[in-house]
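Q: What would this chain look like folded?
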Amino acid sequence: MRCLTFTILLLVLPGAFYNEVHAQVERKPVLSYRNTFRAGIYRVAIEPANGWGSMLQNQYSHHFLNGRLTASGALSYIILVNFSDTKPGEHNSFTRIMGDVTGAVTPVLIKRHAWRLGGGASFWRRTDASARYIYYETNPDGTYSNVKMASDRQKANEFGFHFMSEYEYNFYRHWTATGRAGLHNFRGWFMWSTGILIGYKF
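A: My prediction, written as structure tokens:
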């Protein structure tokens, strides 16, 4: 629930930002580039995996209509590991290789600032490993030894969809910093993500 609340805040806060900036700056967007390459890191929560993980992402975007429309493709690697609080060595791991195709509109495009909303299609290759058997011996001092564990692995290719909101700031010439929040749905798997990307415009 905390993951969902945080994501919703990131989706709606740029609207308040828009009202403040629009009152102070005349909207005269000037776009001198058509492409952006970005790389970043995210914090993600996957349900029903019930845990936090990390996501690394590379993204390419092409801008249309003076930056008002954007089409982008992204490739990501995700890993989430849950460790047991009661059994030594026991853990479940969830890894994903994910691709996104996204279309976005830019309601706010003012000088160095841009706010985008969008969504699109997603695909991921998931590999899940869950503990099936664990054996260990408890030493007199409370430590563990001779730990042995076997895991069950599941692999699947799944299609889904996603929604996103992002705020981009052009901090130096062709360089940008972006805060991004998103929600993915894959056949009952839900993933919330918040992250930061550094980009180069050309």
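The first helix runs from residue 2 to 22.
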